[in-house]
Amino acid sequence: MARIQISHLTFGYEGSPDLIFDDASFQIDTDWKLGFIGRNGRGKTTLLRILSGDLDGGNAVSAPVKFDYFPFSVHDQQKTPLEIAADMDAEGQIWRFMKEIAELEVEQETLSRPFSSLSGGEQAKVLLAALFSRENRFLLIDEPTNHLDMRGRKIVSRYLNGKKGFILVSHDRTFLDGCVDHVLSINRANIEVQKGNFSTWEENKRRQDEFEINQNEKLKREISSLRAAARQARSFADKVESSKFGLSPDSHEKPKNARAYAGEQSRRMQQRRKNLETRMDREIEEKESLLKNLELSDDLKIFPLAHPSGRLVECRGACIGYGDRKVLSDLRFTLYNGDILALTGRNGCGKTSLIKALTGEIAPLSGEIRLSSGLIVSLVPQQACLQGSLRDLIRAEGMDETQFKTILRKLNFSRDQFEKPMDAYSAGQQKKVLLARSLCQRAHLYIWDEPLNYIDVLSRMQLERLIQAFKPTMILVEHDQAFLQNIGAKVLQLDDPVFRWTNREK
What we know:
39% of the residues lie in helices and 20% in strands. The chain has helices at residues 44-52, 81-88, 94-103, 120-132, 150-161, 173-177, 198-242, 255-289, 351-358, 390-397, 401-410, 427-440, 457-470, 481-486, and strands at 3-11, 21-29, 33-38, 61-62, 66-70, 137-142, 166-169, 182-186, 191-195, 311-322, 325-336, 340-344, 366-371, 377-380, 445-449, 474-477, 490-493. β15 (445-449), α13 (457-470) and β16 (474-477) form a beta-alpha-beta unit. α3 (94-103) crosses α4 (120-132) and α11 (401-410) packs across α12. The model is unreliable at 499-506 (pLDDT under 50).
């Protein structure tokens, strides 16, 4: 069984004082289906780029296979999927690509359209099929679910489960459980490889965290005692050292011999102190290391406004579209205080268009969308194109700076990120800024359009606990099945010919 070995990898970006990886070592087998998880900013994409050769990792990587990276750039967007696959197929075995496409349930007519005209989900499937049609490759798959709807995620998860030899970065727990057999996790203090799927890893992590939390107070007491003993030994040694320069009044020794004696006694005590401090430092370091991988995810807070009207949104036979093109027809539903409504359906079925209609960006072509009088809405848009500094955003939005930065810290933002321009943030960090802004806003209705794109799984769990605890009224577009189930969302399936939404009369 061939193995990919990473040995003593040290890497940091030029101009940054912090290292992404510091003497990291681990190994994986080339036939594993490896899920890759970790907090935003921990270096998942960086590691994939090092493996692919885009970044210089020195001589740290030893591999018997060649790597392919997803997503790769299609330079000529007017080429069809068949032409793209043919360009990549040096052996002219286009039938392999057709086989992969069939497994991904891509319609045949899609293959003759320009790549630029395909939806994000269709493009993702085409790129995956092209890469898996190549032989003797190990795939580095970076967040493929960001452009996949719920049905697409099920198809791709089932597809990947039938493959082997890949690393998959994803934060969708259901998706990972369906297709991986090992988990690679970047923790606070180290990198670990475990056998199993995400649920197995999560249970092991829960048990480890529980053990460390239970040991925390005991370790604090032991560390405090060791430090007190070290201070006492240091103080005693310093007193002996000072005695070299003066004698006790009742001493009958000659000054010369007394000073020599005191000097020897001081030297020995200083050496004992150093030995004791070395031993204590080692014990303290060993005890503190037990707590280094404890992921502390502080609970988030939100303070939604209560609207006097029970009904916040009424949609009566609305037709939504652009010009002559209808996206949604005869849409009917009512949203009450405390409801959490998830808009689902295939890509392009009108989810974001409905949100634009709800926020007044576009008007219905016919029918009616009625919002309660005085309704305050907080929006998290799908796309984040943030410019300038956090301070600029805080001033422009009139936010409480302490509250805003506290939320970001809870979402695992380091303090040094506060000083960087927002256009230098990763996609996940930009999305967290938008979420933090929304959490700072007191609103009757929170509308979040794909809020979890690029967001790490621990932050997703924080958001789940927030919604469970504070129960804000929400409309959201999301495809993470576990997340929707855990927050108790009701589903409005927009690509169903009959919109089924059970209204509760209040």
